[in-house]
Design brief:
Helix 21 links the parallel strand 19 and strand 20. This protein starts with a strand and ends with a helix. It is of the alpha/beta class. Strands 1, 2, 5, 6, 7, 8, 11, 12 and 15 form a nine-stranded mixed sheet that branches. It is elongated and about 110 Å long.
């Protein structure tokens, strides 16, 4: 079969597409154009797949055609045969690789709807494929190819429009320099690349690395009328196998039909806002800086090709396929008449030509000009003749603005009889010369200023500064380091440990490092292992949270420890509230009990001794410990051991004790530090009093001063250089925290000023959440090309972010519900951190108890709780039978199966697929390698240790959603503080007055998580803390005043001709 194939298109389910993107209209327009094989586009979208199943029937092997009853009546007017469909789709991958944000589009072709279903089901686990026909996944292109090959070996993956600046394999802003860098070991499975609208084969031939790949072209059409803007010329057996051999091997690929590359909207460099279009040479002469506004110039495809090419003349390539330039027929008619392609007269002329002469491609490529002249007149025929001869004038596109291809000058259109001469070569290039003359008067930016801008420090240095070195290398019995946000606290702690190991030859078994979260402990171990290498056995070092260290300590003392889960504690508290007539919720009583046990209550809040005793008796009667018992029992044993005056074996581990986040320790934790290090050699604590945010559970921001008062010889060191945040962010944060009592804060920004803080007032809660979602679109450079074009026209490439570079922080978990709803609607991948309310669900608690019972089979309480919560039964023969049946099913696989898979099986077995809380538990399980690790996190984890993906199994980039408390110890290039309004911050509750100083510290923590951009949003009345930020460091705006996005459409090549005629 000799024919034309357009394999990369989009249906109506993709963003910014025509409503006519249906099988019926695609069939119609393929007939009009003369296209033999057409990609379906968007096979990942479930609704589109269902529509394809309904309306297509199998034709030749791996190809489909429209059912006869679905063919439009209008289609019968076009005599050419029914076009064939092949399953196709485009995947947008946004991820970070080799330290850079990558945004790559790939086209996939498949041999059947069954394969499309199979691959889509897999991708649905990874990301949201429902919101856009071209889904956005945080998935490495290499991994996408690997998944496709595993599930559909006959599938074809083709890197799409490989030179597009923002979304392609070789893109100047977010691509790679080689195919191998993108696909690594799977590179041999890539056999073809799509050149895109802004490049042609001649340009691609300049890159010898592409010699082994087939160069194909497709329209990437967003409406049926745009089909075939670029296409492939084939001579193959009409089957998927024939198509496969053409694309993968070149057998039957006769050549391509090309857009004029200058017509593409990213062909040349430039700056659209300043109306500046530059060749690569001119752009380099300006140092990549716009001479008008001083911002970065958008690098175009031609420049990018020049950067990577190793041939001056692409015609040196051997085994080249021929290609030809074409312009869509309506645009030829429009150019010949001075009208717009969409005008009624042009469309009427187009339809007449199709009916009288045949399909569009035949008219443009094959039908004799004389025959065209008879039916369409002199000007249209002359336009087609010039097109075939390449006699066109080209004005290159740049920075998102389409170029213009002119077949006629305006006076030729106005007086066709007097303008019969053809363009000479000199005339064809005159406009190019004039353009160069126009920009040559621009003034080149000062080189020293440019160099100075490039040399600015934008992050922390590799080596320690003077204060960090002092903290790491000081030899003293007790050292306290005040380390504000971004001063390199963790880096200093690591340097201290390495100094002990390498310079002072301290044994790893003598060092204990206490962290605030399990995640911080893991990261500390990983970084130490990385830096120390194999020189030291880091595993012999004791690193963990207070609770994990105490749990390990008690087990080594011979104690059998069974931790009570939340459901058991809640039941006990509920019974006690009733017995003692307390007007408290179980959660409130448990909090008071915890404060009492850890010594953090004032006299007026003391509990009745009998109540506390009753609580402990009921707990211990079941052989259970609560969280605080780990600390109290450890402290009790340590004191008893020290009372014997005999050196204990456990003390060696605490010879060199390091405590991170010292400001957040409670009274009992302070006592543990004293006991652990009583006979130790050195104590090193590090933290920031201004980040003490756990007063509600007993922490004391005055612990540094307490230590100094108790041990006057303590060496006090302050780290003052902030390497994290820009000047505006740090200054704003310091102004806020300066309203709290304490010493003068001396933090100094190491980065430049950056952009001001944005304070955004929303008209409603919903508008605030929508703003956050749209802002993430902006920050990631737009989640599709149309959004990216608008963003980069304003910002250039500066500041583009991946999803994982962004965090949205809020005061309480209930504020996240609206955000999740908006993110799901927008298809934004996200991960929620923290201990959420769904964990209190009886079914969730019962599930946790069930698997705890398998992990600890000797402990009956977990089993009893599981039976009660899951099946609402007391312990009996019936309940035992139910439990034993489920235990037998899971006892051998609970610790061998991945937690996510285990949870999904469990949910299905219990017929709980409609239970949202259970699905959220499964979404949390994906972040853990084993079920035991998952259970430990649920029972022992702090707020920042728990994570849940937003309904999808995201393996790549995702936005982080979390409370301000959970954000402690983390940092992100961009932070959005959401819901910063009165009542939420400071948090106002009826049962307790707000601790304004602690709430201000919490706000300060949130602000200082941001490295580059900080956005604070509110609806209704703003938080009083917002007024404490200096005006000179902020920009205020309202969402209602945001500039509306222009309605987007695919631009015509000749849209500008009409402008010039008016």
């Amino acid at each position: 079969m000799k024919g034309i194939a357009d394999l990369h298109i989009h249906s109506r389910y993709s963003r910014a597409t025509s409503k006519q993107g249906t099988p019926e209209y695609l069939d119609l327009w393929a007939r009009k154009k003369g296209i033999s094989i057409l990609g379906t586009g968007d096979f990942t979208h479930p609704q589109w797949r269902e529509e394809l199943k309904e309306k297509l029937i199998p034709a030749e092997d791996g190809l489909y055609c429209l059912k006869e009853e679905a063919v439009l009546e209008e289609s019968g007017e076009y005599k050419n045969s029914s076009p064939r469909f092949v399953l196709s789709g485009e995947i947008s991958s946004i991820y970070k690789k080799n330290g850079k944000v990558r945004k790559v589009h790939n086209v996939i072709l498949l041999p059947s709807l069954e394969d499309a279903e199979k691959l889509s089901k897999k991708l649905e686990i990874i990301g949201n494929i429902h919101s856009d026909g071209r889904p956005i996944l945080g998935l490495d292109s290499h991994d996408l190819l690997e998944i496709m090959l595993e599930l559909c070996p006959r599938g074809i993956l083709i890197p799409a429009h490989i030179w597009t600046p923002h979304f392609s394999m070789f893109g100047a802003f977010s691509g790679f320099d080689t195919v191998e860098e993108c696909f690594e070991d799977l590179t041999p499975y890539i056999h073809a690349v799509e050149t895109g609208l802004s490049s042609d084969p001649l340009m691609n031939w300049k890159l010898s690395a592409l010699d082994r790949y087939q160069l194909i072209s497709n329209s990437d059409a967003h409406s049926p009328a745009k089909l075939g803007r670029e296409a492939n010329l084939l001579d193959i057996d009409l089957s998927y196998q024939g198509l496969y051999q053409a694309i993968q091997e070149g057998n039957g690929l006769e050549g391509t039909i090309e857009f004029f590359p200058e017509e593409g909207k990213y062909h040349f460099d430039g700056h659209r806002k300043c109306h500046l279009c530059l060749s690569p040479e001119e752009s380099e002469a300006y140092g990549g800086i716009c001479p008008i506004c001083g911002k970065k110039i958008t690098i175009g495809v031609d420049h990018r090709v020049m950067q990577l090419s190793d041939r001056k003349d692409g015609r040196e390539r051997k085994n080249k396929k021929p290609f030809e330039y074409l312009v869509p027929l309506p645009e030829v008619i429009a150019a010949s008449t001075g009208k717009t392609p969409a005008s009624k007269k042009v469309q009427e002329q187009y339809e007449i030509m199709l009916h009288k002469l045949g399909p569009e491609f035949e008219i443009l490529r094959e039908i004799p000009v004389e025959e065209i002249r008879k039916e369409a007149g002199y000007m249209v025929a002359e336009g087609i003749r010039r097109l075939r001869a390449g006699q066109v004038k080209r004005t290159p596109g740049f920075d998102g603005e389409y170029g213009v291809i002119r077949l006629f000058e305006q006076d030729e259109i106005e007086n066709p009889n007097g303008q019969l001469s053809f363009f000479s070569e000199e005339e064809m290039h005159q406009e190019e010369k004039n353009r160069k003359d126009r920009v040559s008067s621009g003034q080149r930016p000062d080189q020293s200023e440019k160099q100075q801008e490039e040399d600015k420090e934008t992050g922390k240095k590799e080596e320690l500064n003077e204060k960090q070195s002092q903290a790491a290398e000081t030899i003293d019995r007790r050292i306290a380091v005040a380390a504000g946000p971004g001063t390199g606290k963790t880096k200093t702690l690591i340097a201290r440990i390495l100094y002990l190991l390498e310079q002072r030859n301290v044994g790893p078994g003598e060092i204990t490092a206490v962290t605030f979260t399990n995640q911080a402990a893991r990261e500390l171990k990983e970084r130490l292992t990385l830096q120390a290498g194999s020189r030291r056995n880091i595993s012999r070092m004791q690193i963990g949270t207070f609770h994990s260290i105490c749990l390990d300590f008690l087990k080594k003392q011979g104690r059998k420890i069974f931790l009570a889960d939340t459901s058991v504690l809640t039941e006990i508290a509920k019974e006690l509230c009733g017995e003692y007539g307390l007007s408290l919720t179980p959660a409130q009583l448990l909090n008071k009990i915890s404060l009492a046990k850890t010594g953090a209550v004032s006299g007026q809040e003391e509990l009745i001794p009998q109540l506390l005793q009753s609580y402990q008796e009921r707990l211990h009667s079941q052989g259970l410990y609560d969280f605080d018992d780990l600390l109290t029992e450890t402290l009790k044993i340590c004191r008893e051991n020290h009372g014997s005056r005999k050196k204990q074996s456990w003390e060696r581990k605490f010879s060199y004790l390091m405590v991170d986040e010292f400001q957040d320790i409670s009274s009992i934790q302070y006592e543990l530090i004293r006991e652990w290090n009583k006979n130790g050699k050195e104590l090193f604590v590090i933290g920031d009093p201004d980040q003490s945010i756990y007063g509600f559970r007993g922490s004391d921001s005055g612990c540094f001063m307490k230590m100094k008062e108790e041990y006057p010889e303590t060496r006090m060191i302050s780290l003052e250089n902030n390497y994290r945040s820009t000047g505006h962010i740090l200054r704003g944060a310091l102004a806020v925290i300066g309203n709290n009592p304490g010493m003068e804060r001396k933090l100094k920004p190491w980065k430049d000023e950056g952009v001001p803080l944005r304070i955004v007032e929303a008209s409603s809660k919903n508008a605030e959440a929508v703003f956050a979602a749209k802002e993430i679109n902006r920050l990631t450079g737009g989640m599709d090309m149309l959004e990216a074009q608008d963003y980069f026209a304003q910002k250039g490439n500066a500041g583009q972010k991946s999803f994982r570079d962004i965090a949205v922080l809020y005061r309480t978990h209930h504020q996240a519900r609206l955000l999740e709803k908006c993110f799901q609607k927008e298809g934004i991948p996200y991960v929620v951190r923290g201990r959420e309310g769904f964990l209190e669900s009886p079914l969730v608690q019962g599930t946790i108890s069930f698997f705890c019972s398998l992990a600890e089979p000797d402990h009956p309480a977990c089993r009893e709780e599981a039976v009660k919560k899951l099946w609402d039964l007391e312990d009996s023969r019936i309940s035992s039978g139910i439990y034993e049946e489920m235990a037998a099913r899971y006892e051998k696989k609970w610790d061998r199966t991945k937690p996510k898979k285990l949870m999904q099986e469990w949910i299905e077995d219990l017929n709980l697929t409609e239970e949202k809380n259970m699905q959220m538990l499964a979404d949390m399980a994906i972040f853990y390698n084993s079920t035991r690790e998952f259970l430990d996190a649920l029972l022992l984890g702090e707020e920042g240790d728990l994570k849940r993906c937003g309904g999808k199994s995201y393996h790549g980039d995702a936005v982080s959603l979390m409370t301000l408390h959970a954000s402690k110890g983390l940092e992100f290039p961009v932070v959005i503080l959401f819901g910063m309004e009165k009542g939420e911050l400071p948090l106002e509750r009826e049962d307790a007055p707000a601790d304004v100083e602690e709430e201000r510290r919490l706000f300060y923590v949130g602000m200082t998580r941001a490295r580059e951009e900080l956005i604070l949003t509110f609806a209704e009345e703003p938080s009083a803390f917002l007024e404490e930020i200096p005006e000179e460091d902020t920009e205020r705006e309202k969402t209602g005043k945001q500039k509306n996005m222009e309605t987007c459409r695919q631009l015509s090549l000749f849209d500008f001709i009409q402008e010039k005629t008016t």
